[in-house]
Amino acid sequence: MKRYIYSLAIAASALTMTSCLSDLDTLPLNSTDKTASESYSTKEGLEKGLAYIYGSYSLVSQNDPGTSDISVSDAGQSELVRQYVVLNEMSADAFKCTWGDSYISETQYGSWTSASNSATVAVYTRGLVTITRANEYLAQTKGSGIEGISQLRAEARFLRAYAYWMLLDLYGNPPFATEENIGGDYPSQIGRAALFEWVESELKDIMTGEEQLPATNSYPRVSKGAAQALLARMYLNAEVYTGKARWKDAKDAAAATIAMGYDLCPNFAELFMQDNSENANATKEMIFAISYDSDKTQSWGGTTHLMSGALDDGASEAVAKALGYPEGSMIARERWNGYHVPNSYVEFFELKGVDWSGTGIGYDMANSDKRAFLVNTGCKKDFAIDDAKTGWRCWKWASRKSDGSLTSTDAFSKLSSADFPMIRLAEIYLIYAEAQARLDGGQTSDATAVGYINKLRTRGNVSTQSFVDLDFLLKERARELMWEGHRRVDLIRYGYFTSAQFPWPYKGGVPNGKVSLASFRTIYPLLQSDVTANPNLKQNPGY
User: Fold this and answer.
1) Among residues of the chain, what percentage have pLDDT more than 90?
2) For every residue of 350-389, which 3-state class applies, written as one string?
3) pTM
4) Domain limits, CATH 1.25.40.390, in the chain
5) Alpha-carbon distance 441 to 446, whole Å?
6) CA–CA distance, 421 with 267 (Å, rounded to integer)
7) Class of residue 183 by CB neighbours under 10 A (exposed 0-12, middle 13-18, buried 19+)
8) Fold of the 1-213+500-543 domain
9) Chain segment 115-133, per-residue pLDDT in tens
10) If we measure between CA atoms, which residue out of 322, 204, 258, 240 comes closest to residue 455?
């Protein structure tokens, strides 16, 4: 599948769902191009069509990574995973940036509006384009007798369901359409709770119905585990989405996912290295991952911006030196010097020997939490939005491989080949433990739940627990899942995202963050141009 994602068979769409639905059934502009019926007439064509949907999560166009097919000025800033991380991490306490881009300021100040914003536009538009591509695929392949089509359709349905979950989580009540709506009226909204129920039903059906995901699949294609894991995540947040808590369902779905045979990567760092897609230790923990390759699936978003965005030359060299590389080596191919982690977030980690003298990476890495990929070289402790020499920097996605080699020495590419984990087993362990703790009144000593947490902590080189409570689990999620796109909804689930009782730097635009946010900011606005064009859409409250 990875070989197909860059060389796709169908012309790219740059439209949102409102304009897409009536524009899919068209003839090619070039006489040498294939029609849809020709493209879907062979197994190879069907696989390429499916790769086109997978590619919606990582690619910005069918040209080069510097050219975008949607209306965002910077192609790298138009990529789905990049802005998905921004909306979920930069809007909370984990991820800050000293660059002056308007979408960055709005996101970290909590001041976004219904006006166009690169982050909200990218995720909204690409989410809907993913859904539209899946709808076209399902419409074109209905009734196909080609061998294996049921599994391919189930994969397309999962990718569509995941995109709908992203929109459900971030935008609340997006436009809704399936393959049956192609060529029909403008799509309507069905409400957040109803969309939750539809995604839930869809995930269950592709695990047990006529069109089933396989029990296992070739990496990075999805299997039943991905559907079961997404159900677990949805149930954990069901009270946010529908008003009704479903802790028992979250626990059961997590248990079912765990029983499918995934395992933790023994070395946490290998999950984020440049060859994680080729490393069996890493892929056995990945339940759903987005593929990147510096040769084939290139992006200035994805893990490239996470690898290059945080460090300057001094920090990059300091990390490389701490890891034992020769003098002058760099842990990142490029150093954009913008992304930071505030010290208040870093304090969740168990770090030994913290030092702000600027002579090293800033702590005793060998004896600290192995999940803390941090460096404070040349920085002051208190983060300031206008000073790149403040706070901590994160090098979780570095340019090294599991054999120890550095891709930062490669002359041919500045782009990352590390895949991004949308869902991995560690999250499912955390879901199980939190669901059990909530069922037990906020604290649990259940052996299974605590055992899962202790597996994560043992791997992280920190002390094990005899019980866990909700406060501890929120901090454990912060440690385990830093910059993986979870923080915003975690804080919403805990009631902290809008509360003045849970400050972070520049929350509400205030340096100490000791302010509340308006309750409507738990979801983002729909794309205003879509609302204007489609009379069936109503903008989210507050916007």
Assistant:
1) 83
2) CCCCCCCCCCCCCCCHHHCCCCCCEECCCCECCCECCECC
3) 0.94
4) 1-213+500-543
5) 12
6) 15
7) exposed
8) 1.25.40
9) 889 999 999 999 999 999 9
10) 258
